[in-house]
Write a structure and sequence with these properties.
It is a single chain. It contains eleven helices and twelve strands. With 345 residues, it is α/β, with parallel strands linked by helices. The longest helix is centred in the first third of the chain and has 17 residues, at 38-54. Bound molecules: iron/sulfur cluster.
């Protein structure tokens, strides 16, 4: 090997930073954990099992989980998605989605003579129970969440007279309570952890005696995916999150990546939505997926990136997830027979 000398090169060279960027192999930093959480897995399997056991159609109120691909796949298998239980003809089976429903929706199904399967995630049910308990104790409940989100509508419906929604720190100024010594906050399960704590801090400044929920309402899956995305964001020039535009936890992941300083972060449902121009000058792409996203969609993005030279895939693992939930107990019953009985009554 020849000795290096200090003689200036006769032709201009790229700046060292540019040279190292172009010389480094293009790589993908793949988040772990990512994708399906225990609640989504349970809800999707519940629809599949219901179709298997009872045959099509099985009606599902709202998207079982917020993912286009999952919904389209289940539709092909015989699921029919409806906006309201009142749209389902009497004597049928209707499933409630992972986001949970208000008690009035159970009542609508009873009135409509429908057999029901409740696929509400147990971690959402936990928040519903907290809301019921604090309402019974006559607390004012400040529910931190996004206006119009299904989960928030369902939780609020448990105690509409006691719950008021707080949609971010800017909402705090307008919050009024009956007795500042009896106020508790709860939250939607799929929020940004940091933003929620900002809202809680603002609420605590206004109501120093504010009580916190007995355990975190933001679920383990949301928190783990945000921690992983922060880790990626520090090492990548671009972050891609696979998820649907109506998926709260997926949207939060993009926001968390941007707040962590990544120059660009995007949400895509499918690999085909990635714009080639996003890759300009990018050596490291961070990749993750929301809690409602099957991994096949991430694999498609990996293939798409591999075709463009991003061949190295490094797993960035920040947690192990082992939680699983048992299927809704209603699946152990003959719901077709029960539904047929209901129309005879
Ligand atoms: S994101 Fe969390 S609360 Fe929502 S379904 Fe998954 S585990 Fe349950």
């Amino acid at each position: 090997m020849g000795r290096m000398t200090a003689t200036p090169a006769p032709t201009p060279e790229p700046a060292p930073a540019d040279r190292s960027a172009t010389d480094r192999p293009k790589r993908v930093l793949l988040a772990a954990p990512r994708g399906y959480c225990a609640g989504v897995d349970r809800a999707v399997i519940a629809v599949e099992k219901a179709l298997e056991q009872y045959g099509a159609p099985v009606y599902v109120r709202h998207e079982i989980v917020h993912n286009k691909y999952v919904v389209q796949t289940l539709e092909r298998k015989g699921a029919i998605f409806v906006d309201q239980a009142t749209e389902v003809p009497p004597g049928n089976i209707v499933m409630f989605s992972a986001h949970g429903v208000a008690p009035t929706v159970h009542e609508e199904a009873r009135q409509g003579r429908l057999a029901t399967i409740d696929a509400t995630c147990p971690l959402v049910t936990k928040v519903h129970k907290e809301a019921v308990r604090y309402a019974k104790e006559d607390f004012d409940i400040l529910l931190i969440g996004h206006e119009g989100h299904e989960e928030v509508i369902g939780t609020s419906g448990e105690a509409p007279d006691h719950i008021q929604l707080v949609d971010g720190p800017e909402d705090v100024a307008k919050v009024e309570v009956r007795d500042p010594s009896r106020v508790v906050w709860l939250s939607q399960t799929t929020l940004s952890v940091d933003e929620t704590m900002e809202t809680v801090d603002a609420l605590k400044t206004k109501f120093p005696q504010l009580i916190s929920p007995p355990s975190d309402d933001i679920c383990y899956a949301t928190q783990n995916r945000q921690i992983a995305i922060k880790e990626l964001a520090g090492q990548a020039e671009l972050v891609i999150v696979v998820g649907s535009k109506n998926s709260s936890n997926s949207i939060r992941m993009v926001e968390v990546a941007k707040q962590a300083g990544v120059p660009a972060a995007y949400l895509v449902d499918f690999a085909s939505e990635i714009d080639e121009s996003w890759l300009e000058g990018v050596t490291s792409v961070g990749l993750s997926s929301g809690a409602s996203v099957p991994d096949v969609l991430v694999q498609e993005v990996l293939e798409w990136l591999a075709q463009r030279g991003y061949l190295d895939v490094e797993l960035v693992k920040t947690a192990d997830e082992t939680l699983t939930f048992s299927l809704p107990k209603e699946l152990r019953r003959d719901l077709r027979a029960e539904a047929a009985e209901l129309v005879k009554e």
